[in-house]
Amino acid sequence: MDMDKLVSLSKRRGFIFPSSEIYGGINGFWDYGPLGVELKRNIKDAWWRDTITGRDDVVGLDCSIIMHPRVWEASGHVGGFSDPMVDCRETKERYRADQLYVFRYDLPTGKDGTPQSLALALTGATVEDARSSATDRLAQMARKGTLGFKLKEIPEPTSLPYLDLAAEDRDGVIGPSATKPGTLTEPRSFNLMFRTNVGALEDASSVAYLRPETAQGIFANFRNVVDTGRVKLPFGIGQVGKSFRNEINPRNFTFRSREFEQMELEFFCHPEEAAEWYAYWRKTRFQWYVDHGLRSDRLRLRDHERGELAFYSTATADIEYSFPFGVSELEGIAHRGDYDLSQHQKFSGKDLSYFDEERWERDKVGLGMTSFKEYLRKNEGLEKPGYPYQYMPHVIEPSAGADRATLAFLCEAYTEDEVGGEARTLLRFHPRIAPVKAAIFPLVKKDGMPELAEAIYRDLKRQFNVFFDEKGAIGRRYRRQDEAGTPFGITVDGQTLADGTVTFRDRDSCRQWRVPSAGVVEAVRDLIDGKVAPSGE
Ligand code: GAP
Question: Which of 191, 207, 301, 476, by CA, is between 20 and 30 Å from 81?
């Protein structure tokens, strides 16, 4: 699938627009149009229902985007949430140093016998990705007369990450858009958090940050939820909301944006049960994408190598999707141990441990004790005197991006096929996430068909997002809905007037079958819920 085609369809049909486009756009920010907002909302709703309200052991939360700045000190974001960055002094462009690779071409010796070489820096998520742009870059330099060699003289290059380049070799490297060598700066750290000031004073005391993840709001509210939510371990707290990262290199359409939405769950459990819950969420989250239409041969679960793990994590896996621009992360599932709660306990000075009252009540007689204080006294001096009754819960964190999920579902749905010898473009969304669930058409604008169709439309509209269209040839109306990803077409035709049934049409197979008009709402609900197959039988 060609990414350009998807970007153009997204714009043409109102899924995704560049932000502030009338002013030339702003890099890393996107707007969702009428169809896109429904698609993304359906994805977030499906996540919320399946992860929170559909379960007995998870509750929801919606916390503020700007939080106390100490939150980000405790989480490590103030000190460590940074990418190494390289600037080009000539073009003023900025690159992520870990996505910059140097390709070195050793050329035939010059007339005076001196060895000659060319070192080009190119960007890419991987070295192969960067290498794939080398031919174009060399050809462009040749056209502009800045190559200095004949294209046919250029041999195969050797490559190395820019971060591994010795400082003294940096001066010989030509930047990705530069015309001469030596314009790239040394890598330096760049904090990805957006800073702002709270209140009228713009000084150090008023500095605050737009949250770079929703997770920390959950940890900061852990005590509140335990005290008021009647929750017992194991349980989770989920949140969906905007996050902001001043990404150095926003790219690949909405994949890496500066403002995006996350769907995060922090699942708290007893340390002894954490490995089991990790395995559970790793599997459950993978299956969620498959169930909503991502084919598992484009999805993969990649377990992090030991060296990739954060120091507090014993296991992490990424759910990755094969996008047209490469295989990239959709969601991470991390076993975070008790790192986050311990950090917030340390920085806030508030006790964030959990007391398992049920377990204590069950065991205390066997232990021959009447109070927990007695138990603590007995274990005084131990590292965890209250264990296994009072402890810092361990956390399993499935952290997903709503925009990345939307992009993956769009890529997966995009299909070109032929119907009746005519090319068509369609979006094969799962009915649960499709922006519009059904389109209702009167076959012709006479014989009472528009009135009957409108009555069905009004009935459906009370429960589903549906669309009414009476303009143009029926084939064209079907095509327009196929392109919007509407799974079902409902047509009021001549037979409706005779026997009260309407034609249902399935977007993907174009198969048609008849349904009594009185049962249309139920039929659509059953189809969305997957209770019946879209067919005539
Ligand atoms: N609390 C953990 C956390 O935030 P992360 O891997 O940095 O982990 C989780 O982010 C998810 O958020 C990613 O898998 C991705 O889906 C989404 N995400 C992160 N940065 C993003 C960006 N710049 N643009 C779009 N989505 C992003």
Answer: 301
115, 129 contact by CB (below 8 A): no
- What is the structure's pLDDT at 536? 47
329 Cβ below 6 A of ligand 1: yes
Query: Residue 414: phi, psi to the nearest 5?
Result: -65, 120
The ranges of the chain with pLDDT < 50 are 536-537
Do residues 265 and 51 touch, judged by C-beta distance below 8 A?
A: yes
Residue-level length of the chain: 537
Does the beta carbon of 340 sit less than 6 angstroms from any atom of ligand 1?
no
DSSP designation for 224: H
Model confidence pLDDT, tens digit, residues 9-45: 999 999 999 999 999 999 999 999 999 999 999 999 9
Helical segments of 368-505, H only: 372-378, 402-413, 449-461, 474-484, 494-499
Nearest CA to ligand 1 atom 19: 401
Q: Are 292 and 433 in contact (CB under 8 A)?
A: yes
Task: Locate 222 and state its tokens.
Answer: 């852990």
Task: Determine the straight-line distance between the first and last CA of the chain, rounded to whole angstroms.
Answer: 34
Q: 47: how many CB neighbours lie within 10 A of its CB? A: 22
Nearest-angstrom CA–CA distance, 488 and 472: 18
Q: Tens digits of per-residue pLDDT, 277-303?
A: 999 999 999 999 999 999 879 999 999
Both tokens of residue 505?
């049409």
How far is ligand 1, taken at its centre, from the CA of residue 268, in Å? 20
CA distance 389 to 350: 19
**How far is ligand 1, taken at its centre, from the CA of residue 242, in Å?**
11
The pLDDT assigned to 535 comes to 66
